[in-house]
Design goal:
With 579 residues, the protein is an alpha/beta fold. Helix content is 28%, strand content 20%. A seven-stranded mixed beta sheet has the order 8-9-20-21-22-19-25, with helices on one face.
Amino acid sequence: MVGRRSAPSVAYFLVTHALFFLLACRLSASQQARNYTFVHDARTAPEISYYDYIIVGGGTAGCPLAATLSQNATVLVLERGGSPYGDPNITYLANFGAPLADASPSSPSQRFISEDGVINARARVLGGGSCLNAGFYSRAEADYISGRDVGWNSELAKQSYEWVEKKVAFQPPMKQWQSAVRDGLIDAGVLPNNGFTYDHMYGTKVGGSIFDTAGHRHTAADLLDYANPDGLTVLLKATAHKVLFHTRKARPTAHAVVFRDSTGAKHRAYLNSGAHNEIIISAGSLGSPQLLILSGVGPVDQLKAHNITVVLDQPMVGQLMSDNPMNAVFVPSPVPVEVSLIEVVGITHFGSYIEAASGANFGSFPDNDYGLFSPKIGQLSTLPPKQRTPEALERAIYNMSKLDRAAFRGGFILEKIMGPISTGHLELTSKNPNVNPSVTFNYFKHPEDLARCVQGMSTIERVIGSKPFSKFRYDTLSVPQLLNMTATAPVNLLPRHSNSSVSLEQFCKDTVMTIWHYHGGCQVGAVVDRDYKVIGVDALRVIDGSTFNASPGTNPQATVMMLGRYMGVTMLTKRLASA
């Protein structure tokens, strides 16, 4: 009878809606907890304001830094993007890739293409890259922490990691496919089996994740829970245009930041008077060197080319840029696999890290996708970098839409090299801070980087051929047959001559992609000192991944968040000691 439900249907309807209501209440409570009273749209900001600290960039380093400094000072954070809260594409693991595929002006990610031809992205949202990435959480190696480049205090670094982990790090579920990758790595000789740990250790381990067991992302913005709300102001959609300097002193001294809100209205934030008050740039590896140059601190030829007043000729700003090259193999599976991002890593002695992602999200209809390796987000490896034109991406996306669902069943095993040794540079293209600078990474320019990729790909071959992984590969198909079967898929598979090191070298060059771990441009020892103070000027620091000489650990986000906390504690300690 139309309009009536059977008793079971009514019961199901009531239970379902009751559960939905409870879930909605829980989500609402969660959102309420993140309805920070100190976060405002920049349009509400006064034309002139004063603070003890001004932080440009509310990202992976800026949020923990601000939360810490707010305990005993007034802090302003200028974030050019919006809030991550309430955006399901950021929150839910199954929606990974959607923000990276969004090319609109309001997207939480901003796409850029390096001069190498590799398509990449930079964050434009409170919480920074932790709102966009694949979630893996792993600390830096002990030698990195205590090494000559950074020389962090090991105990304070440990405490800072733990402070971060209480809010955003979780043990991943480790279902069948990820377990098979782990066991395959062990079978392939990536030993020992270190179990679950946040620490960086040679061998195979299960690392942490910023996705909780329900598949909900926790970002650096969650670290603002620690903030003193009376000491912090966060302005969203506030784009910094330049840092202002007093130049009549012996050394230029930073004293204000000019920023604009979403309407284009200009605002100025000034430092309060005080010996410990400072401006901190935490705008990321593109944004931080870009803002320094826009402010007159950079290579003099670039400053003059853009008619920017020279505050300090600093030729190393924008230099030594690096991006850890990533190469991956898609392995179709004869059986269904779970949805997973990065949970396991093989840390080799030869300098390659092996990771994996899988799942039903690769084939979620109507939008078939390969998540971490989708041409929708620029990850097109079937063409060499310079051939990855917008037209080629569109063709790949179209071809992907025509594939049978079975073509999306499986997962990717990837390798990323440590370091890298190869470096490039960044150059200003416009005085508009919303316009991407030009960046060159010079992937595989150094032969050792290429050798590490070859060894990493050889290890992946052994993992795929291992007994523990056998359930998730087609035993009846040879590699050439597998290649022919999926030749039209917009993903890469093993090279046709997999036993030839030459072909593996070419494979590495032709299929290189990003894993979004680029860094440099304001490196320690070149642009900033070991206290992260910009060399040659006063009252200005850079605290973020642009200061790294190499990417820390297997995935840098844990260390970027740790650095924000670490430097916040260090700066506050000195401030209180002199009070």
